[in-house]
Amino acid sequence: MPELPEVETVRRGLVPVMEGRVITRADVRRPDLRWPFPDGMAERLTGARVTRLRRRAKYILAELDRAETLIVHLGMSGRMLIAGPSGTSVPGAFHHHHPAPEKHDHVVFDIEDGTRVTFNDARRFGAMDLVATDAVEAHKLIAVLGPEPFDNAFSAAYLAEKLEGRWTPIKSALLDQRIVAGLGNIYVCEALWRSGISPLRLARDLTKRQISDLAGHIRETLEDAIAAGGSSLRDYRQADGELGYFQHSFAVYGREGEACRTPGCGGTVVRDVQSGRSSLHCPACQR
DNA sequence: AATGCCTCCTGGCGGC
DNA sequence: TGCCGCCAGGAGGCAT
Asked: Which sites are catalytic (predicted)?
């Protein structure tokens, strides 16, 4: 679900609430998400100060004093909900009363000023781990990640090298977090449409020019989405409860049977299934 | 090494 | 109202 733009939007929403603040209590309400939580997670979080909130690919990294970092992945349905004094001007807010946790509220963070941050994840494909900060880069889930799309390392030359000789469809290659980190199903479809490239085309068959265009369009698509606060599908919201609005800018995602938005194209958006996932594209202008 | 399939889990929606 | 199948923003793990 949440791809790079949504995760970045969540991170930005959490910064004013958590960065520099102490977690006065962490309520870990079940033993696991996708994997078991690390030993003593609640105790290790309680009383810790969040010194910095970073993002790597689709992971939020909350650096704590105590030299540990909380690694959070939202999976398909994970949300970080903020409630309480921060950002509100409720008189006596410090004594704000929080309602009882709801279904799928798995981890609740109480912040020193009375704000409450709740990790809610119906499908539990999300994950959390807590590791030494100097070991984050070497963490099993982090170490395998390719470059950030906005990093200089993600160049046309780099992408060309990674795609060279690959028999896999370009769609699959771009979903591979080892090649470039942060893309998911929506933004791959959108970036391929912007590039006029079919998701079915084999990675090895792209020209240098197409690869260069693609790298640029990936960055452009993600930038546009971040600027819009991400995409709000179903119940996804920004951390502050606001809805992102990039979904209104989708050219192909969720538009099966509708007219292609390429000026003068006249094609119709179709849905193909590739390795079990929907690939929305326009057969007329995506080759 | 590269590729493709299965799986984890819950909920919303459309069809009957 | 109820039941059923399908679909959903991810990605690790495993067989080939």
From this structure: 2 (schiff-base intermediate with dna), 3 (proton donor), 58 (proton donor), 277 (proton donor)
Q: Using one digit for the tens of pLDDT, what is the confidence trace for A124-162? A: 999 999 999 999 999 999 999 999 999 999 999 999 999
CA atoms lying within 13 Å on the CB side of residue A177: 14
Does A156-281 match A4-143 at the fold level?
A: no
Domain boundaries, chain A: 4-143, 156-281
Q: Which of A55, A58, A162, A194 is catalytic?
A: A58
3-state secondary structure of A221: helix
A275 touches strand B (CB under 7 A): yes
User: Which ranges constitute the DSSP H helices of chain A?
Assistant: 4-18, 41-45, 140-143, 156-163, 170-175, 185-195, 208-227
Would you list the DSSP string of A171-196? Answer: HHHHH-TTTSSS--HHHHHHHHHHHT
As its CATH architecture, domain A156-281 has Orthogonal Bundle (1.10)
Name the class of domain A4-143. Answer: alpha beta
Strand partners, A68: A132
Q: For A172-208, how does the pLDDT look when each residue is reduced to its tens digit (9 = 90+)?
A: 999 999 999 999 999 999 999 999 999 999 999 999 9
- Nearest Cα neighbor of A207 from A164, A168, A256 is A164
- Which chain B nucleotides are covered by protein, judged by CB under 7 A? 2-12
Q: Kindly determine whether the C-beta of residue A234 is less than 7 Å away from any atom of nucleic acid strand B.
A: yes
| Contact yes or no for A270/A280 (Cβ under 8 A) | yes
Are A8 and A55 in contact, with CB atoms under 8 Å apart?
yes
